[in-house]
Specification:
The protein folds into 3 domains: 2-111 and 179-195 and 302-311, Rossmann fold (3-Layer(aba) Sandwich), CATH 3.40.50.300; 116-175, Histone, subunit A (Orthogonal Bundle), CATH 1.10.20; 198-301, Orthogonal Bundle (Helix Hairpins), CATH 1.10.287. Helix content is 49%, strand content 7%. The chain contains 13 helices and 5 strands. The chain has helices spanning 12-23, 48-53, 70-86, 98-106, 116-129, 131-141, 143-148, 154-167, 171-175, 197-214, 216-223, 273-280, 286-311, and strands at residues 2-5, 25-29, 56-57, 90-95, 189-192. The chain has a 5-stranded parallel sheet, with helices on both faces. The radius of gyration is 20 Å and the shape is globular.
């Protein structure tokens, strides 16, 4: 099977399509954001024309309120891969979520199933406390995991807390147990798409502009109920480096009809959602929202490049 990995906007999706066309393959998504159906534009999911060229799987199958960790994705991907094998076709796994790919290749640590009541309680506590206070709490109960996680990473913070509370052991303990391979007979041919950084950053900037042309603003408006008006455009940020006051989990009454997403919603992590929501609310100009989203995209691409370089999954 083939794995095509690389940072956002590097061209890996087109390479996967080219390989799948040549080899009679099926493309399987390995991007943690492209699994959500409500944001196909901002997550750069393949369009209908691209999906008509070769089969695509595991794109846009989750609602925004659902979360998907690496182990759950890897199990689903392994099932899809085996189905493709039974069809005598080539699985082409493509994406930039390195942890997904690492889990697929190495296997899954034997973390027990989490009690649903515990999961609900943890999510409620996150929503009430906020991620930074939640991180401080985790530092007291599980300092090993807290040190590995950013205070803003609400999804992984909740995962660490729910595992600790449900099993009585740190997630780091379960990760220390050798993982069980999901596809023990698989041979992975990995291609890492690596382009010069200036070119990658240029593509990041251009791609977000293209997303706007495709309707990204309307996509975000629909996420928030379709009630927000973009008519009020304020050049209110003195610097594009200053973060806009983000909307996920906001409760300010002056925002009126723009309802918020829960702060733990995975959609809040998608670059462009919060920036364009701030624009729709009239808190920032469209120009500043775009500039900030482009900056966030470049930063994300840089983190991906660093991760893949350290993991040494492959070269291209």
């Amino acid at each position: 099977m083939r794995i095509i990995a690389g940072p956002t906007a590097s061209g890996k999706s087109q390479l996967a399509i080219d390989i799948a066309k040549e080899k009679g393959g099926v493309i399987i998504n390995a991007d943690s954001q492209q699994v959500y159906r409500d944001v196909p534009i901002l997550t750069a999911q393949p369009n209908a024309e691209e999906q008509a060229v070769v089969p695509h799987r595991l794109y846009g199958f989750l609602e925004g309120k659902e979360s998907l960790n690496a182990a759950a994705w890897a199990r689903r991907a392994a099932q899809e891969i085996e189905t493709v094998w039974h069809e005598n076709r080539l699985p082409v796994v493509v994406g930039g979520t390195g942890l997904y790919l690492r889990t697929l290749i190495d296997g899954i640590s034997p973390v027990p199933d989490i009690d649903e009541a515990v999961r609900t309680q943890v999510r409620a506590r996150m929503q009430e406390m906020g991620s930074h206070a939640f991180h401080a709490e985790l530092t007291q109960s599980d300092p090993t995991m807290a040190e590995k996680l950013r205070p803003s990473d609400s999804q992984r913070l909740m995962r660490a807390a729910e595992v600790l509370e449900s099993t009585g052991k740190s997630l780091s303990y379960w990760h220390s147990i050798p993982p069980k391979p999901l596809l023990p007979v698989a041979q992975f041919e990995v291609t890492l798409v690596n382009i010069p950084r200036p070119e990658l950053y240029r593509r990041c900037n251009e791609r977000f502009v293209k997303m706007l042309e495709m309707g990204a603003v309307e996509e975000v408006r629909n996420l928030f109920g379709g009630n927000a008006s973009p008519d009020r455009v304020l050049p209110s940020l003195p610097s594009c480096r200053r973060q806009a006051e983000f909307f996920c989990g906001a409760s300010s009454t002056r925002r009126g009809s723009l309802r918020s997403l829960p702060p733990e919603s995975p959609l809040c992590k998608i670059i462009g959602v919060r920036e364009l929501a701030s624009y729709l609310a009239g808190d920032v100009s469209l120009e500043d929202a775009v500039t900030l989203a482009q900056q966030m995209t470049r930063n994300y691409a840089k983190r991906q490049m660093t991760w893949f370089r350290n993991q040494k999954l492959g070269t291209h």
